[in-house]
Amino acid sequence: MSQAAAYVDASNLSKSRQAVSQILETVASGGCSTTGGAGKSSCGSSGGPDDMPAEIWEKVKNHPCYSEEAHHHYARMHVAVAPACNIQCNYCNRKYDCSNESRPGVVSQKLTPDQAVKKVLAVASEIPQMTVLGIAGPGDSLANPKKTFDTMRMLHEQAPDIKLCLSTNGLALPDQVDEIVKYNIDHVTITINMVDPAVGEKIYPWIFYDHKRYTGYEAAKILHERQMLGLEMLTARGVLTKINSVLIPGINDEHLIEVNREVKKRGAFLHNIMPLISEPEHGTVFGLTGQRGPTAQELKAVQDACAGGANLMRHCRQCRADAVGLLGEDRSEEFTLDKIDDIEVVYDLDRRRAYQEQVENERQAQVAAKTEALAAQAAHDGVDPGMKLLVAVATEGHGKVNQHFGHATEFQIFEVSRDEALFVGHRRVDLYCQGGYGEDEQLPSIVRAINDCHAVLVSKIGACPRDELTAAGIEPVDAYAHDFIEKAALSWFADYCERIARGDIVHRARGDAHIRQGAFSGAAEKVA
Ligand code: CLF
Ligand code: SF4
Fold it and tell me: Which keywords belong to this entry (predicted)?
């Protein structure tokens, strides 16, 4: 029976589900998003080697999307080989990249599979910590199976140390699971915004399936069934899955808690809840009808409400279909087709491994610094055990507070308490420093982006932004320049608690913050 027939024949679908369920029970006992085999209750993007079975850790330890810790040190790249799509989402305008894994309004340079392989080898020789190649559009990777799998096959042969990853809306997924396994594609993202077609019909106007266009409730029902079946089949074959969901206030916000439960049941390793970005100039249905995206605290509230379900990824950058570099940086402009012709490609496996060993040492040092800081804090009487607050951090990688306030195009957000310094998100901002002088017009938008934070940790900051941040109630801190982030955040937190205890300052709650919607300003782009 083909997978296409499975939808049409409900009883056969149910049998196929039963078979998969039996396999799932077996898989779940050794899986990761479960309270299973290794006796651990939780893992996911902030997990480490002690939180999951060794074979899962091997798959995630240097994947920047599947491990929050890894994302400070390892890079990924995308190749835009998959232009077609088989569904329509109301938050997407097909003039631009797929919004399921990309920031709306971005157009990537499309490549043939041969060009894509050439580009991957060029990037691998320039960026030895690039460990993952993903195909995430600009349409749907599995609506373009030949281009996607030709690329994966060549890379599997020519760059065996690079992990292969793809992202899909899931409609074609059940038909492609064998190919995914054949080319060792160990990581698959499925965008799942609903598990109830009545919610789905508000998000998807149509799908194209089995040579036919479906609309409304029926379209959403088919998509939902194909997504669930595809997820179950991947779990049964041992492929790690991440679920992306776009949080659309008033449509699926509370519903995402149920989505989280359902995908966990089916073995999803991670759940990434991303904010809807819908500007009228993107020309999407949601942009044009005024559907707003969530605020930072609305996003965090839904993520927090999912605690205990499938593990959450909170460090996604909604990157473009031709992204290159660490998640928080974009080096795609350095590797356009005309430029890679000038790069001398030396794909040297030994050199890559040696470099990655250094990266691994740096990462271990970051973990050790955090452990040490947490131990010091636990022994510290002055730290309020009930206090939990957010700090923003300017970093250009290596897990350190190592960026000038004026050079930041994003701030990483950490939730700090006596027991933890946890990455909980990031906020994009326009550059404050415009080539030697500060752009005071940008400051209010930066303050809005980190308005829920009590402090901003930077390597350096000028007098003017320092005064304005202080006036807005956000403490600028450069005392921990070049320290590892978690250690710096915990040290600042201990000091903050002490100052409150001494009566030097009064603790006040912060407000909500704004998630950046539009493109970066032209001025910022020139400097970047
Ligand atoms: Fe790319 Fe996606 Fe693979 Fe990562 S992205 S295909 S899993 S290698 Fe990562 Fe980018 Fe977020 Fe995607 S930060 S948009 S989650
Ligand atoms: Fe756009 Fe991606 Fe949705 Fe297709 S799956 S319509 S490319 S957002």
Answer: 4Fe-4S, Iron, Iron-sulfur, Lyase, Metal-binding, Nitrogen fixation, S-adenosyl-L-methionine
